[in-house]
Each structure stands twice: as C-alpha cells, then as structure tokens.
C-alpha cells in the first residue's frame, strides 16, 4: 500500500492524510474521509472537495503526484460528503469510460454499512422507489415515484440493537443520496443524518446512570450520517480480472457499535432466517 496522500485547504485551515487502498497504472482507490465533498458543490462553493484538492495537487506538482507521474485523475463515482470509505478514480480516459459502463450496468458494485434508527421488518429486503431532488430543500433527495429517476437498493440486516440496527446496503442504480433517501422512506433514517430525519447518538442515551463530569458538554458518539462505503467489487476495467477493495470502519462508527453492543445489545439474524 502506498503512503497516504496529504491534502490541505489553506482557506479553511483543514488537513487530510488520505489512505490509498489500491493502486495500479490505471486505477487509484482512496479511503474518503467523512464530511469531505467528493466534487465541488454549487450550493457551497467555498467548501473544499476531494476532486478540487487532488486537481490542485496535480497542477502544483505535489510530491504524491510527481511520484506517480500523474497527469490525469477522474472520479468514477461519488460518495456523499457525510459518507466515508472506498472511492475509485481513473488515471486515464480509457479506464474512466470502462468504469462508467460498469457503474451504469445496475449491478451491486459497492457495499455500504449504515447504522440506522429502528429496525426493518425483514432481514433481507429491496426498496425500488424512484428518487428526485427535494422541491423545498435544495441539495437533498426524496422518494418520488411520479417525478424521480428509477432507484433500487438491496438491504441486509447484520445486527440489531435496542432502537437501532446495522444494515448492509447495495445500490443497483447509483443515484445521488439514494441509500439515505430510501432508508428515510422505509422509516429507518441513518443515525446522525439530520437532513434525512436521523438523530445524533449520545452515550447518555445508552449507558445507565451516565454522568457528565464538571460543566462539560456531551459530545455525540456519531454526529454525522453513519454511512460507510466498506467494499467495492468489480472486474478491472482494463484487465477484466476480479478486483475487491475494502476500507476499514472509521473510528466513530467503531466506537458507536462498540457502545451499542455493550449497552444496547440485541441480536444477529440467523443465516437461515426467513426474508
């Protein structure tokens, strides 16, 4: 694995060391940090984005770019700003075109983990409901069967806690904010996803007789949308060989699940449980 790619935004005084998950002459896969945009957002033009920072590094000839001899880099798909995990880039146009075809084929390439409020009715289920931009909340999506674009997501229940559940999510249609909109639609919004009806996860809501020392203010275990792109599986766009890229759980998700298992233990579905 290569050394991390170091990026900074002087305007916002932010700094990132981004882990390289996979790299060859055609592809670069990074572990995108939570709260970092993938691409510039017209609603928040001053907010840093990963693509903007990477392209600035290429133009400035930063060490990470020189070492790789990079002159071209394009993202093959997107992750929401709140979402962490595997993000794949093409190093040349041939790879980008091939990846675009793969991501447009309605096959489950990406597997995400979502910590949600409540519990689904079934251990395994699909949601196939069109999604469209929200008419009153710019930048958000909503389930809209009349005006939206076709969207389908497959969900598997991994673990159930008191009041919350851990789900595996596979998008078959790669729409913007699809998983978040579908989980809101089925009544299980993602923990910490305030834009879609989710709430922060506080230790005081889990631990009996919780006491905060002094005059401190409690910080949430999870204050962002608990959505992580854990795995990307696809044929290599140039060689055709099977490729699987994984990203470790981020620290906040690890800590949240640790405390849920400790203070709100539930159950894991049995392998032969009826769907």
Q: Which features characterize this protein?
A:
ten-stranded mixed sheet, single chain, 275 residues, Pseudouridine synthase, two-stranded antiparallel ribbon
Description:
With 275 residues, this protein is of the alpha+beta class. It has a single domain (5-263), classed as Pseudouridine synthase, CATH 3.30.2350. Helices cover 18% and strands 29% of the residues. It has five helices and 14 strands. It has helices at residues 50-60, 63-68, 93-103, 178-185, 251-263; strands at 5-9, 14-18, 20-23, 27-32, 74-75, 84-90, 110-117, 124-128, 131-133, 141-143, 152-161, 164-171, 227-235, 242-246. The strands form three sheets. Strands 3, 4, 5, 6, 7, 8, 11, 12, 13 and 14 form a ten-stranded mixed beta sheet that branches. It has a two-stranded antiparallel ribbon with strand order 1-2. A hairpin with a 3-residue loop joins strand 3 and strand 4 (27-32). The longest helix has 13 residues, at 251-263. The protein is globular, with a radius of gyration of 19 Å. The model has no long low-confidence stretch (mean pLDDT 92).
Give the fraction of residues assigned to helices. 10-25%
Count of discrete domains: 1
Radius of gyration from the CA trace?
A: 19 Å
Query: Please, what is the CATH homologous superfamily?
Result: Pseudouridine synthase
CATH class: Alpha Beta
Count every helix, treating DSSP H or I runs of 4 or more residues as helices.
5
Which consecutive residue ranges, at least 5 long each, have pLDDT under 50?
A: none
The third-level CATH topology is Pseudouridine synthase
- Tell me the series of helices and strands, N- to C-terminal: EEEEHHEEHEEEEEEHEEH
* Beta fraction: 25-35%
Mean of residue pLDDT values: 92
The major beta sheet can be summarized as:
10 strands, mixed
Counting helices, strands and paired strands, the structural category is alpha+beta
